[in-house]
Amino acid sequence: MKIGIDCGHTLSGADYGAVGIKAESNLTREVGNRVIQKLQKLGHTVVNCTVDSASSVNSSLSQRVSKANNSNLDLFVSIHFNAFNGAAYGTEVYTYGANRLSSAVSVLNNIVSLGYTNRGIKDGSSLYVIRNTSAKSMLIECCFIDNTSDMNKFNAEKMADEIVKGLVGRTTDIPGGGSESGGSGGSSGGSGNIYGSHSLIKELQQEINKQGFGSIAVDGIAGDETLNASPMVRKGASGGITKVIQKMLINIGYPVGSYGADGVFGSGTETAVKAFQRDCNLSSDGIVGRETWKALFRNLK
């Protein structure tokens, strides 16, 4: 089966997702990247239709649809999270004309089995990616990111498992995923990409697990698993992951201000990130997203 997976919204620029207890743009990738890896391990062909940066919402949406329509897909799946001022909860799936596709119904019922309220199959005819994709399509609103009850239930691995089972009838573990046993490949996921190895990467992995962004091997090797679990961080953030970013910047030669690695993403850290991004020929938005994480991993000394 040939399936297009779209991790909804961008990581930077226009079309950034909703923000609640956690950021939608991060969560769509935590779940979506796992879905992609699981489907591939099961032998399915997966086209990643995700767009990480765009100059406008229309550009973001049209790029996703173009990837899908140029790939002769059997099915297109867009993964999202909902938000409504903390007042709503549960899971819903959108299809064209509220068509009760068997796979859409299965995905919905599977996610609901995790304890979420069933909000039903809904009409997604007005949604750009549903209206314009030529393949059968669905948009999954996994749960509400601004509802405490929903987010207390959330586990990216379990959510991905239920989506995959709904799509193809069964699931599988991600190669090398979540293990600290020291098996081959560690957090690189076996034969996946490796972006760097350093003690600061190990510190980051510990923080990722501690803060609930993933459950990954703590081996100091930055592979796809570590990259996929690394959250987007911007000015105003604070905590252990911000502190690791500051240490990485200092290690590479970019001072973060007079307070050093204090765990607070202020103006000094933002200036350092922008300078690092410019030197790496990245968009200098001051936000540590997927491509900036890759560059940090690769440049550690």
TrEMBL record:
Residues of the MurNAc-LAA domain: 65-168
Matches recorded under Pfam families: Amidase_3, PG_binding_1
UniProt xrefs under CDD domains: MurNAc-LAA (cd02696)
Protein name listed in UniProt: N-acetylmuramoyl-L-alanine amidase
Provenance organism: Clostridium oceanicum
